[in-house]
Amino acid sequence: MTELKEIKLITEIPGPKSQELLKTREKNVPSSISGQCPVFIKKGQGSLFEDVDGNVFLDFAGGIGVLNIGYCHPEVVEAVKAQAEKYFHTSINVIQYEQYIKLAEKINNLIPGKFEKKTMFVNSGAEADENAVKIARKYTNRSEIVCFTGAFHGRTLLTMTMTSKVKPYKLGFGPFAPGVHKVPFPYCYRCPHGLERETCNLHCAKQLDAFFLEQVAPEDVAAFIIEPLQGEGGFVLPPDEYIVQLRKLCDKHGILLICDEVQSGFCRTGKMFASSYWEEFGVYADIVTSAKSIAAGLPLSAVTARAEIMNSAQIGGIGGTYSGNPLATTAALKVIEIMERDNFVEKACHIGELTRTRLNEMKEKYELIGDVRGRGAMLALELVKDRTTKEPAKEETNKIVEECFQNGLVTLSCGIRGNVIRFLMPLVTTDEQLLAGLDILERAIAKYN
After folding, report:
1. Rg (CA), the chain
2. pLDDT > 70: what percent of the chain?
3. pLDDT at residue 328, as a whole number
4. For residues 303 and 311, what is the distance between their CA atoms, to the nearest angstrom?
5. Which helix or strand (DSSP H or E) is residue 106 part of?
6. What is the pTM assigned to this prediction?
7. Average pLDDT, rounded, for the chain
8. Count of domains in the chain?
9. Is residue 202 part of a domain?
């Protein structure tokens, strides 16, 4: 296969072959399935992909955070090929296979917390979150779940209920699942209480006591579910002190803490898991969900919990036909081996440092940039029309994303207000590629500043 080295645009975008395929898509695929980039991939390598017309793009979206290890890592490809020659499938519920067991053992050792853990596998982040809630309810014998504004946990009935963004994820799809309550996420740039981080004295954490008085009794709550760094909500990072207080509150009332690491896991934030940052404060989640980059793009997700929590479910109460598929678990074992061997944590820190430095330099030059935030290589820009009023610059955000694409760089927007540009570039991105992509981004921002 010819090596992809750099951005190369040789046709109009989209090119003629992609345009023909778009006609077939329009006729056969629901328009409600979004499709940001109107080009069709032919092959991918590392952080680059070539479309069917021969154009080569740099990908800062990474399959929405799935390609931390990059496109088509040769060792993962070989591992999956070797497994495919043996067998594709046998449900763990019927015939056992080694990959499932080994991967569970590996993830139990990686998830923060020096206590006995057990892991089950399903197929998507939404399934993982759904099972985490189900297990929490079973263990506590309580029904209520508390989640956060700005959250994204999936598109199933339960996870859609826990998701905060109405459009497009919830509009017209109600009624929603019962037993789900929301509290404000500590979004310091847009404090829901109108306070400043330096002087707020963690007012948001203190409000949780009022929530229990006014909304739901703590003895009815099975779990809080929180993203250690909100993904779809705009890459919003809660203060570490807030997490400490949340853990104390959970312990006080016998409530479990579920950490949704679907997007933030597997080295993205500069640690294997974002919740590893909590360890220095002695804070650990009771249940952790992970997915996305776990298997280099094959459908797989995990629910890891304290052993006694996981064991509370009755035999046959959790699992599924395809859960922990042999091809996917084989890929995941190889992904983790490579990430540990080649120090992907350090790669994420390096990419994050270069990117954050450049983004902060842009912020000094362009009034459009209101905030630069994130951890490791999970970074974002929040764009505003005015830095004082913080009016969201949604239209400008969309134009910048499109301008980047037309110049060979794939980026993603996010945030409740649609005014955040997030960066999920593969962690195999070279310095040269990274800087080239940031150059494209800066030119686009300058054009619409």
Report:
1. 22
2. 100
3. 98
4. 13
5. helix 98-110
6. 0.96
7. 96
8. 2
9. yes
